[in-house]
Amino acid sequence: MPSILICCNPVESHLDPILEVARAFVRRGWRVRVLTARRFADRVREVGADVLPLPPGADHMDPAKDTARGIQAINDSIFDTFYAPADAQFAAIQDALATERTDVVGGDPTFTGIVLANTLPHRPVLALASFLPLMTTSRDTAPFGVGRPPATSTAGRLRNRTLTWLTRHVLLRSVHRKIDAFFVARGLPSLGSAFFADYFVVNDGLIDLYGQLTVEDFEYPRSDLSPLIRYFGPALPASPPDAPLPAWWHELDGTRPVVFVTQGTVANIDLGELVMPTVEALADEDVLVVVATGTTEALPALPRNARAANRLPYDRLLPKVSVFVTNGGYGGLHAALSCGVPIVAAGDTQDKVETTARVAWSGAGINLRTGRPTPQAIREAVHDVLTNPSYREASARIGAAIAASPGCDGFAAAVEDLVARRAQAVAS
Side by side, which strands form the sheet with 323-326? Predict the structure, then answer.
């Protein structure tokens, strides 16, 4: 029986897609262990995998750091969040490898301890499954984080090159140097002139596969894409068939458009960012506003056309939705796109500058280009999406590509092929 150790940083938004990856390997008869936060143990076991709790030095990640403001704060946030825990992560990986034979280590691309496996005399196959917008640098795209659409003209590529240089050598110079020193101190290749987001793909042999969990229709085209990067389609969790439904569920009967708004699983501390402005914006409209709070915090009194719940089964709700208003969480976007639902996106923290930009670039919706839109801006965008069929058509096109993609099962099959090829090479 082949064996995989799947690593996942201790954040729920990372866990959801990683568990779908784990589930795919379980279906193929693999021995699956998941190295993640102790508090996720029950959820890991539910998919048929064993859990290995992260040590204290790695069992923490503060999503609030991703909202850091100011150049130095952003530099410090990147290193403290994704690189400072790497030694503790790698120690846990080593312990897992010493316990039993493991063919593959992989999973969360932000789990930096995985790359330290290259310091081992004989490392397993390393395969990452990315549930984030593609970060790698390209001559065809602006650098990750600036939220600009791709450009392939001569002028556009000059823009891309200029912005990439500024990002590496000015804006993120501090963290680039720290990350370079981090890898060199551990006997790994230097970043050299490469941006730290390209470390896996510009240094040969550091990983065997970078699985991008989306479809090409929702990612910027790159003429210089590394062959290590392959698209498999998104990880789309299915809700349990017995998931409880709110008492108002019967109102989703198609008699009026349904506008679904949420701030996702992490950025839901202040519902005044997007949820409440959306409720206010549409209070007098002939629509049914459905709110998923993601929190147990009590909402203020809602208008007559609004309904709310803490959590809702996306796979059952979204086929009934006319417009999805979101702060741009990658999982929620793909769930909506898989159902052909057009989108109004408003997010500017974490990776959401990039996810929301892809919504507009793909034609599947409108990007409000802020994390705190006004009710008027939301109202106008929702009206535009409801009345312009091009948004729904674009979302449906991406949804068809998602339906045709192999998803996490395709990723598992590709990893299985890598293991078989390595075994064959060793045998010969």
Answer: 306-309, 288-292, 258-262, 323-326, 343-345, 365-367
Cα(46)–Cα(115) distance, integer angstroms: 28
Q: What phi and psi, each to the nearest 5 degrees, are found at residue 9?
A: -65, 155
Query: Could you give phi then psi for residue 318, rounded to 5 degrees?
Result: -60, -35
Q: What is the pLDDT of residues 369-411, one digit of tens each?
A: 999 999 999 999 999 999 999 999 999 999 999 999 999 999 9
The structure tokens listed for 222 are 């790159």
Report how far apart, in Å, the C-alpha atoms of 66 and of each of 21, 62, 114, 205, 365 are: 25, 8, 21, 30, 25
28 vs 395: CA distance, rounded Å: 31
Question: What's the Rg (C-alpha) of the chain?
Answer: 22
Q: CA-to-CA distance for 68 and 55, rounded, in angstroms? A: 26
Domains and their CATH numbers in the chain:
3-234+405-427 (3.40.50.2000), 249-404 (3.40.50.2000)
- Count Cα neighbours of 326 within 13 Å in the Cβ-side half-sphere: 30
What crossing angle do the helices spanning 407-427 and 12-27 adopt, rounded to 10°? 60
Q: Give dist(CA 66, CA 81) in Å, integer.
A: 9
Q: Are residues 259 and 279 in contact, defined by beta-carbon separation less than 8 angstroms?
A: no
Cα 317 to Cα 252: distance, rounded to the nearest angstrom: 9
Q: How far is CA 215 from CA 134, 165, 402, in A?
A: 11, 28, 6
Q: Are 79 and 175 in contact (CB under 8 A)?
A: yes
Query: How many Å apart are CA 322 and CA 327, to the nearest integer?
Result: 17
pLDDT of residue 242: 82
